[in-house]
Amino acid sequence: MSDQKQNFIGGAWVSGEPAENVNPSNTADIVGLYARANVAQANDAIAAAKAAFPSWSRSGLMERHAILRRASDEILARKDELGRLLSREEGKTLVEGIGETVRAAQIFDFYAGEALRLSGESVPSVRPDVGVEVTREAVGVVGIITPWNFPIAIPAWKLAPAICYGNTVVFKPADLVPGCAWALVDILQRAGLPGGVLNLVMGQGSVVGQTIAQSRDVDALTFTGSQGTGAALALESAKLMRKSQMEMGGKNPFVVLADADLDVAVDCVTQGAFYSTGQRCTASSRIIVQESIHDRFLEVLTERVTALKVGDALDASTHIGPVVDESQLAQNEDYIQIGQAEGARLVVGGERISGATQGFYQRPALFAECSNDMRIAREEIFGPVAAVISVKDYDEALAVANDTDFGLSAGIATSSLKHATHFKRNSEAGMVMVNLPTAGVDFHVPFGGRKASSFGAREQGRYAAEFYTTVKTAYTMA
Ligand code: UN1
Questions:
Q1: 439 lines ligand 1 (CB under 6 A)
Q2: How far apart are the first and last CA of the chain?
Q3: CB within 10 Å: which end of the chain, N or C, has fewer?
Q4: 443 Cβ inside 6 Å of ligand 1
Q5: Contact at 8 Å (CB) between 413 and 265?
Q6: Which domains does the chain have, with CATH numbers?
Q7: Which residue owns the Cα nearest ligand 1 atom 3?
């Protein structure tokens, strides 16, 4: 296949079995052919990363800075084109696709700066005449496995710190969205990364992902994706005594108190639950509403949800793009049935609809009269489906918000400083939002959750150093 986008191993482009990258807004539109790597190629990529590590881990800081800077500049200069590619392969709207691309550029910019801010500590020993230095060193070969829902931002927030801190990388993007990943690797290699520092192996989790996960030559493994896969990868890593970082699902609560500004609350829920087609681990899927404003809130929210325009991601008037593929759409439909069978009331939406083109379109679904023990309130659906739960007061709202296996993000709409402060302190989530949606986070501060949502060190910002470096304590007798 002459026009296939190839894998990148040891500084060379390498062909493989071509797989179609399909546009979920229009299945007749093939974004491109992308080479799927096999086991031997994945092993070659790991070996190339291992061979490149001694030299890259000692590379000059200005070299790392300049490469990350150039990557940031190019991503920003091409934001419209890359954002369009993103929306075409993943299905989020063009505004969201371009926004995510800008965020990727900002992440590279941030770590370009961090490369120049590496620091350690020099402390006196408890023994006379002995000095102690505490420094951070690169970990080694980092395996990076990314999901389909953020095709450029999540690769950026794993690749940029890995490179910044002197690691070499074997990178497997989600099989559904290799386009942005390929573009990022192309940008980074032209920005001057030496061969072997960054290796791209596209393809299936069961082939490429498994090879990376089981390799003793991969010194650290970072993954974002489903809870089941993350738990399995963490176990695999523990067997090898290898560092691992898993970002998994969420069942994020958004509390609406009677004292909330109604417009703010409805905005937060509409954006948090349904934008990006609800396909975010930070999506609000449990809407916990104080009973005294429940009916009014539901009425206004229903109007808003009904008015959302579902359609082609590239159409400027679209609010909600398609679901990513047929199997995800079928799973969402299953949950609509499960919710109804459990006795929840489907207020609006949930049905598959046809557009001008053949795509995976579903109307955003709003359930009311839910209880927190229903499956639709406990399991991550990863689609445009939200469950409204009525509660008596703030105390019950907090208890219901925390009654979940997950703990990624939690939000509250309130005008009470007392309740906002109490919620920030007592929410059992890694990220708490007051009068803001549960989804949509900054790029320069830590990202991560608790309980079944996350395992290992935080991602993003300066906290990323915890995962991408290892600490050395060196003693010197004067
Ligand atoms: C966001 O909400 O801004 O997979 C980011 C996800 C998360 C990223 C969410 N890791 O949805």
A1: yes
A2: 64
A3: C
A4: no
A5: yes
A6: 4-248+453-477 (3.40.605.10), 252-434 (3.40.309.10)
A7: 440
350 lines ligand 1 (CB under 6 A): no
Check residue 355 and give its pLDDT: 85
Say if residues 207 and 187 touch (Cβ distance below 8 Å).
no
Q: What is the pLDDT of residues 190-228, one digit of tens each?
A: 999 999 999 999 999 999 999 999 999 999 999 999 999
Mean pLDDT of the chain: 98
The catalytic residues are 247, 281
Beta bridge partners of 134: 121, 473
- Closest ligand 1 atom to Cα of 280: 11
Structure tokens at 373: 């023990």
SS3 state of residue 210: helix
Report the DSSP pairing between strands 121-124 and 352-353.
unpaired
Ligand 1 lined by 224 (C-beta under 6 Å): yes
Q: How far is the CA of 173 from the centre of ligand 1 (A)?
A: 15
316, amino acid identity: A
> To which H or E segment does residue 247 belong?
strand 243-247
- Ligand 1 pocket, 147 CB below 6 A? yes
Ligand 1 atom closest to the CA of 440, numbered from 1 = 3
Ligand 1 atom with least separation from CA of 279: 11
Nearest 10 degrees: CA dihedral of 190, 192, 196, 201? -30
Please classify residue 337 by burial: count the beta carbons closer than 10 Å to its beta carbon, then call 0-12 exposed, 13-18 middle and 19+ buried: exposed
Q: Which of 100, 107, 145, 150 to mutate to test the pocket of ligand 1 (most atoms within 8 A of CB)?
A: 150
Q: Which amino acid type is present at position 357?
A: T
Is residue 282 in contact with ligand 1, taking CB distance under 6 Å?
yes
Q: How far is the CA of 250 from the centre of ligand 1 (A)?
A: 10
Residues of the chain falling short of pLDDT 70: 1-2
All residues at 6 or more sequence positions from 142 whose CB lies less than 8 Å from its CB, including other chains: 158, 162, 167, 168, 169, 170, 218, 219, 220, 221, 222, 468
Angle at 232 between CA 230 and CA 40, to 5 degrees: 95
| Residue 455 CA to ligand 1 centre (angstroms) | 15
The answer to whether residues 347 and 261 touch, using CB atoms and an 8 Å cutoff, is no
Write the CB contacts of 49 (distance below 8 Å, at least 6 apart in sequence): 141, 168, 169, 170, 196, 197, 199, 217
- Looking at 57-125, list the stretches that DSSP marks H as alpha helix, in order from N- to C-terminal side: 61-77, 79-90, 94-115
